[in-house]
C-alpha cells in the first residue's frame, strides 16, 4: 500500500534540510522499493505570510490525510512581534494537538566519530544510544484547573495541575514497552512517586503493564536522580519513559550530551502509528539560506519515519548506517567540524548519503 508523506518545510533552514531528506526518500523509493507518495504544505511563518495563519485549513487537512509528516522547522525574528495566535510556534502546537501525537520519541545517540563534540569526557559518552519516550499531550502542561488569581489576603497566586488518567498512562506505557523490546530490552520509568500522587498512579500502571512484557526489564527512578544519572553515567540507560514535564527537561539534557544539535531527530506518534518526524533543532535563522545547515537530523528523522510509521526497519537501518559511513569518511557540515575533517555543504552532505544508499 502506498504511504502518503506530507512535507512541511517551514521557515529558515527548514526548506534546505527538507530538500536533502526528500532526496533520501526519493532514492529509497527508486532503488529500494519504498512505496510512497509525497505532497507538500505550508506551515509556520511561511504560512503566515501567504495565508495569514501558521496552520492554514488546507495544511491541516493534508496533515490529517497523511500517514507521516516530515516537518522542517518554524519561526524566526520576522514573526516574533506577531500576536500569539499568528506566531509560527502556535502552528506547530496546534498540529501536535489536532493530530493527537501523544508519544514523543527523542533518541540521544552519540556517533563515536563525534565524541569530541560532547561537553562530557569521551569515555562517559562515546557510543551513547538512549531513547526517551515523553508523554506529549497530557500532564501539567494541559491539566485543569490552571490559572492565576488573588488569595484572600490579597496576594497574587497561580496554579497548574499535574493530572493523568489511567488510559493516558497505559497508551504511552505500551508504546514505551514496545520500543524498549525492539531496542535493548530495558525500560526505566521516571517519576516522583515519593512525593506526587499522580506519579504513584503512573508507577502502578507501569508495573501492571510490565506483566504483558516479560522480556522487558522495567525499573523505576525518581526524576531528580535520573537527572543526575544522565550526566554521571548516561550509558546505563536504554529506554526511558516519562511524563510531559519531566520528559521535556530530561530529553533536552540527554540531547545535549551529544553536543550536536544538527544530528538529533525526533518523532511524535499517534495511537495508530501515524506520526510527525522532525529535527530537534529550530529554524536556525543565523545560518538560513547559506547552504551550511546540517541535514543529518532531518535525514535521521526520515530513518525514524521508516522504522515507526512505514514499517521498513530494514531501510531505517540502511539510512543510519549510511550516516555513520559518511562520518567515517570524514565529511562534516560546519557545526560538527574538527581539525581533521572535510567541510561539506548541506547539499554535499545530503548527496553523500544518497550516494551511499544507491
Ligand atoms: P535553533 O535550534 O534554531 O538554533 C540554535 C543554534 O544551533 C544556532 O546557532 C543554529 O545556527 C544552530 N543550528 C541549529 N540547527 C542547525 C543545523 N541543522 N545545522 C547547523 N547548525 C544548526 O534555536 P534558536 O536559535 O533558539 O531558535 C531559532 C528559531 O527557531 C526561533 O524562532 C525558535 O522559536 C524556532 N524554533 C523552532 C523549533 C521547531 O520548529 N520545532 C524548535 C526550536 C526553536
Ligand atoms: Mg524543550
TrEMBL record:
InterPro entries named in the record: IsoCit/isopropylmalate_DH_CS, IsoPropMal-DH-like_dom, Isopropylmalate_DH
Classification via SMART domains: Iso_dh
Source domain of life: Bacteria
Family: Belongs to the isocitrate and isopropylmalate dehydrogenases family. LeuB type 1 subfamily.
Pathway(s) where this gene product acts: Amino-acid biosynthesis; L-leucine biosynthesis; L-leucine from 3-methyl-2-oxobutanoate: step 3/4
Subunit structure: Homodimer.
UniProt entry keywords in alphabetical sequence: Amino-acid biosynthesis, Branched-chain amino acid biosynthesis, Cytoplasm, Leucine biosynthesis, Magnesium, Manganese, Metal-binding, NAD, Oxidoreductase
Example GO biological process: L-leucine biosynthetic process
Principal subcellular localization: cytoplasm
Spans traversing the lipid bilayer: none
Positions annotated to bind substrate: 96, 106, 134, 224
Cellular component terms per the entry's GO annotation: cytosol
Residue numbers binding Mg(2+): 224, 248, 252
PANTHER family in alphabetical order: 3-ISOPROPYLMALATE DEHYDROGENASE
Enzymatic reactions: (2R,3S)-3-isopropylmalate + NAD(+) = 4-methyl-2-oxopentanoate + CO2 + NADH
Cofactor binding annotation: Binds 1 Mg(2+) or Mn(2+) ion per subunit.
Segments forming a coiled coil: none
Occurrences of domain Isopropylmalate dehydrogenase-like (ranges): 4-353
Reported function: Catalyzes the oxidation of 3-carboxy-2-hydroxy-4-methylpentanoate (3-isopropylmalate) to 3-carboxy-4-methyl-2-oxopentanoate. The product decarboxylates to 4-methyl-2 oxopentanoate.
Compartments where located: Cytoplasm
Pfam family, one: Iso_dh
Protein's name according to its UniProt entry: 3-isopropylmalate dehydrogenase
MF term (GO), any: magnesium ion binding
Keyword RNA-binding among record annotations: no
Gene3D superfamilies with a match to the protein in the record: Isopropylmalate Dehydrogenase
